[in-house]
Amino acid sequence: MKDLDALRTIGEVSQIINVPVHVIRFWEKKFNLIKPIKRVGGNRYFDKNQISNLKIIKKLLHEDRYSIEGAK
Q1: Who has greater pLDDT, 22 or 3?
Q2: pLDDT score for 50
Q3: What is the per-residue pLDDT for 35?
Q4: Is residue 67 classed as helix, strand or coil in its secondary structure?
Q5: Residue 50: Cβ within 10 Å count
Q6: What is the number of alpha carbons within 13 Å of residue 57 lying toward its C-beta?
Q7: Strands, DSSP E only, in the chain?
Q8: Distance CA 1, CA 64 (A)
Q9: CA 65, CA 11: separation in Å to the nearest integer?
Q10: Which pLDDT score, from 0 to 100, does residue 39 have?
Q11: Which of 27, 36, 37, 71 has its CA at 20 to 30 Å from residue 11's CA atom?
Q12: Spatial CA neighbour of 55 closest among 45, 44, 46
């Protein structure tokens, strides 16, 4: 099991927050506060702050029914 502070791949984040990978990539384009670390080869890695931000975005969009602009 990974350390809680370990960087997570986009696939791991997808499972953690229960959102498809393509949705995370879309949110990355729409929300300036989503800035994963990109390594050689273009792999994205997310720290716990990024994952927390993604959880908040998911809540705003899916539960609170904000638009993308409203969630920004």
Answers
A1: 22
A2: 96
A3: 93
A4: coil
A5: 21
A6: 24
A7: 8-9, 37-38, 44-46
A8: 33
A9: 25
A10: 87
A11: 71
A12: 46
Say what the pLDDT of residue 10 is: 95
d(CA 21, CA 43) in angstroms, rounded, equals: 12
pTM, 2 dp: 0.90
Burial class (CB in 10 A: 0-12, 13-18, 19+), 6: exposed
- State the CB neighbour count (10 A cutoff) for residue 9: 14
Closest CA to 14 of 47, 51, 49: 51
Nearest Cα to Cα of residue 13 among 40, 30, 34: 34
Residue pointed to by tokens 């602009």: 69
Place of tokens 């792999």: 43
- The contacts of residue 63 (CB under 8 Å, 6+ apart) are none
